[in-house]
Every structure is written in structure tokens, then in C-alpha cells.
Amino acid sequence: MAKLADAQVLGTCGETLGGSIPLLGTLLDPTQTPMYDKIMRKAFLVLLILLFVLTSLRSFIYASSDTAYQDYLYQFDLYRQTYTDFQVAKNEYQKFKSLESQTAALDKTRIMLAQRDQLLRAYLLLLNEKLNENTGMGSSEKLLYQTLIRNEVAFLETHAKLIPSIGSLDDAGTISKQLESHYLILQKSMRQTIVGISVGKLAELRKQFDTTFATAQTLINTTRGAFTPEKQATMDRWVLQINNKKSLYQQKIDSINSSNSSWDTNSLDEMNRKFLGLQGNIASAKQELQEGSSFLGELVNTLRYQD
């Protein structure tokens, strides 16, 4: 995997566009290369984390989002190639400073910028398909995230229309700057949506859990007289522990939803910390649900076996 290419683009699946996309004027300035490479390496580490999040959601992908996912991978491959071509042309321009090398660099810059927008758009459409397939999310929540995605797609489509008009390296820097200045908003929208999808998937599991638990409670209540006092006490303890886990799970989900409703961060680092923290909280909530499911299994086993 080409680290610079991966890191520069995936503000989509990752963390990269903001601090990791300097102005094209800077990109074409060889004196800025060390700082640029440092930013790229940092962004690539964040990209790996977010790619892990994307991979973890793959188990929930159905037909439509699978197609969108494959398109995203295709667009990503195209971006890496166009970015490599851009780097070659940039190096040639820095080396020769000729009109021919400048023209070639400008041409490759246009292509790279257009593909960058296309890749970001492909990732947003993938998130939209995941939302469409999410059955654990309420309609109002889903509409909120879909609105965020539509707004970002509209921004990218408008931005992409400006690229063919680029006539100089200064023009390229100006148009690239428009995406850079929008980067934090784009990232907030993506991260809010990813967290929302994750919570929605947990809600699907919670529904299954609640259905099974309700069935077990009904059976306990209708047949309680048939059990010995000792067995009744055992079942009551399991029910109490299950309800405790449900309560802890809901507290964590409420905290996640509250935090995800407002991303008032003003820097990439703050956004990284908040996103990783929310992912940790989601994992913790899932753990509560898994432990509750384990207790539910014990309750079911207690019901199955006679004294």
C-alpha cells in the first residue's frame, strides 16, 4: 500500500484530508517535503484505525453496500495511481522548471484532484448504503445521517465541477484549498455517521436479545408454581443480573448518542481522540450486551432442566 497516497485521500475512511492535504503550492515546493511527509505518516496511522472500523462493519454488508464497497475500492486504486502520476510530474517540474514539465504537472494535478473528489464521494455513498440497510436505527436518526451525507456529496460534486477550469498551478492551489477548508466539516459528518451505524447495529442485536428475554420471562411467570423455591431463586438472580446488564448497556448507549450529537472539536487531533473514545465506548456497550446474552443463556438452561 502506497502510504502517501493512502494517507492523503482517505479523510473518507480515514483521517487524512485535513492536516494531510497542504496547498498545492506547498506540494510543489521541495522545501516543504519533510513536513509534508511527517504529516502523511501521522495521517496514515489514523487511516489504519479507520480502515479497521470499516472492515469491522463488513460483516453487516448486504448486496447494495457490497457493490458500493467494491466501487470504493476501485476508486481508491484509481486514486493511488493518479496520485503516483502526480508525484512523478511534480518531481519532474521541481527538477527541470520547464514549461513542458509545468504543463504536465498541471495536467496530472487536475486528474488527481478530480479523482480525490470521486473517491470521497464513493465512500460517502458507501456509508449511505449502510444506512439504508441498517434496521436498528430509527427513521429520524437515519434521515439525519442521510442529510449529512447528501450535503457532503453535493459539496464534492460542486467542487469537482471547478477542476476542469484550472488553468495554472495557482488556480489548482486555490481550488484545492476549498476542499481543505471544508475538511473538518466533512470529517465530522463521516464520523458521526460511522458511529450512528455502529450504534444501529448494536440496536439490532438488542432487539433480538430483548425478544428472547421477554419470552423467557413469560415462561417463568406462567410456570413459576412448578419450580422449587431454590430454582425460582436461581432464575430470579439471573433475571436481576440480566436487567443490570441491560441498564448498563443503555447508559453507555445514551452517553454515546449524546456525545455523537455534537462534534464541537476544532482540530484533527481532538477529532481523532473523540472518535477513538466513542469506538471504545461502543465496544464497551457491546460487551455489556454480550455478557447479558451469556446470562440469558444460563437462564434458559435453568428453565430447560427439571429439578
Report on the structure:
With 307 residues, this protein is mainly alpha-helical. The protein has two domains: 3-181, no CATH class; 197-304, no CATH class. 83% of the residues lie in helices and 0% in strands. It contains eleven helices and no strands. The chain has helices at 3-9, 17-20, 24-27, 33-56, 63-96, 99-133, 139-162, 169-181, 183-223, 229-260, 268-304. Helix 9 packs antiparallel against helix 10 (229-260). 38% of the residues are buried.
Describe the structure in brief.
By secondary structure, the protein is mainly α. It has helices at residues 3-9, 17-20, 24-27, 33-56, 63-96, 99-133, 139-162, 169-181, 183-223, 229-260, 268-304.
List keywords for this structure.
single chain, 307 residues, mainly alpha, 2 domains, 83% helix, 0% strand, disordered N terminus
Note the beta-strand portion: under 5%
- Percent helix among the residues? over 70%
How many E strands?
Answer: 0
Please summarize the sheet with the most strands.
none
Q: What string gives the helices and strands in order? A: HHHHHHHHHHH
Low-pLDDT stretches are: 1-52, 56-62
Query: What would you report as the Rg, rounded to the nearest angstrom?
Result: 25 Å
Shape: elongated
Structural class: mainly alpha
Please tell me the overall pLDDT. Answer: 83
Number of domains: 2
List the total number of helices. 11
Span of the ends, CA to CA: 61 Å
Write the SSE topology.
Elements: H1 3-9, H2 17-20, H3 24-27, H4 33-56, H5 63-96, H6 99-133, H7 139-162, H8 169-181, H9 183-223, H10 229-260, H11 268-304
Helix pairs in contact: 1-4, 5-6, 6-7, 6-9, 7-9, 9-10, 9-11, 10-11
